[in-house]
Design goal:
There is one protein chain. A 7-stranded mixed β-sheet has the order 1-7-6-5-4-2-3. It is globular and about 60 Å long. By secondary structure, it is of the alpha/beta class. Helix 8 crosses helix 11, helix 11 runs parallel beside helix 13 and helix 12 crosses helix 13. It has 13 helices and 11 strands. It starts with 21 loop residues before the first helix and ends with a helix.
């Protein structure tokens, strides 16, 4: 009986929609040999953690989770108590797209701050830091930033350092949602450590799924003492993988042979190519700087449905007709040209 599944075209809706990098698949197959102890007490997990130590330095604590929401929630849960709050951007993934999971599991409060092109500023943090010692107010405990931001922009090193300095001077922590940390590091010309630990980040949700991994994220504590309850929190939160070797093997591959960098560089490069093609189309406006692998565009409303007849994507801000187009490790130049051609025809009407 013939298969009902047709070969789907590569699209621009999300880097989550991309397949798995061949080198990651090879690593999974390599781990599929014999029996090893479950729940992370295996040589694959230990080897993957050593890779993290090579990139971020020793004296860190690394834990694997299934997904980004789990990594973010557990990071924040490790840093807070229920009467404390997390300061984040009003467009932050933890605030807009995690279905209230951070507040449900931490018991605390997310305080949304105004942003500039996706980035919170030191001034906005200062303004939100009040009610200290007042029993009627949730107590600020964590500043959380997303790198790259939800608008595809990238925090500059000095911006992160300023937020980290404020956090530490006021007894707070800096958490980074690094679902696309590889794309940010590539844009900045930095190593993974230079773009996180060296800037004062305390806990990093390290993304893999958006950069070619089949499934899995990691939580990296740059101060291991902060992680002393993490094993129990992870189990309670249903984020403990029994066959963890298959998650760990993916990260070892991602952090070997520069794969994380090669994949991110390619996605960023394809986004710049898409930006160049789109800029030549009358009636189309690039909304935010293309600094990573996302292109945010304002297009005529009538063209959205026409483009979606061939390519699915997300309308980011509906009332302004702003859409998001993402590139991935496997996006090709032909993909970009073909998509841009469809956009041009649709906009023309």
């Amino acid at each position: 009986m013939p298969s009902l599944i047709t070969q789907p075209a590569r699209g621009f809706a999300s880097d989550n929609n991309a397949g798995v990098h061949p080198e990651i698949l090879e690593a999974i197959a390599g781990a599929n040999q014999g029996h090893v102890v479950a729940y992370g007490d295996d040589p694959y997990t230990r080897s993957a953690i050593k890779k993290f130590e090579e990139h971020f330095g020793p004296d860190i604590a690394v834990f694997f989770t299934f997904n980004g929401t789990g990594a973010n929630v557990l990071s924040l849960q490790s840093l807070t108590r229920s009467f404390q709050s997390v300061l984040c951007s009003a467009c932050a993934h933890i605030y807009t797209d995690e279905c209230g999971a951070p507040e449900k599991h931490t018991g605390g409060k997310l305080i949304a701050l105004p942003h500039q092109d996706g980035k919170i500023t030191l001034d906005s943090v200062r303004h939100a830091y009040h009610g200290i010692g007042d029993q009627h107010h949730a107590q600020p405990r964590v500043i959380s930033i997303t790198q790259c931001t939800e608008m595809g922009t990238v925090y500059l090193p000095e911006e992160i350092q300023a937020l980290a300095r404020f956090a530490h001077e006021h007894g707070m922590f800096l958490h980074m949602d690094g679902s696309r940390i590889a794309n940010a590091a590539v844009f900045l010309g930095q190593t993974l450590r230079q773009s996180s630990r060296d800037l004062g980040v305390d806990v990093l949700s390290f993304g893999g799924t958006k950069n070619g991994i089949l499934g899995g994220e990691a939580v990296v504590f740059f101060e291991p003492n902060l992680s002393h309850d993490f094993l129990y929190l992870r189990k309670q939160s249903m984020q403990l993988a029994s066959k963890m070797r298959f998650v760990a093997a993916q990260f070892e591959a991602l952090l070997s042979n520069d794969l994380w960098r090669r994949s991110a560089e390619h996605g960023n490069r394809m986004a710049r190519a898409l930006e160049k093609e789109i800029r030549s189309i009358p009636g189309v406006r690039i909304v935010w700087k293309v600094e990573a692998n996302g292109v945010f565009v304002q297009i005529p409303r009538h063209s959205i449905e026409k483009i979606m007849q061939q390519y699915f994507f997300y309308v980011w801000i509906e009332d302004e007709s702003i859409v998001r187009w993402m590139c991935s490790f496997d996006t090709t130049e032909d993909d970009v040209r073909n998509f841009a051609g469809v956009v041009a025809e649709a906009v023309k009407g």
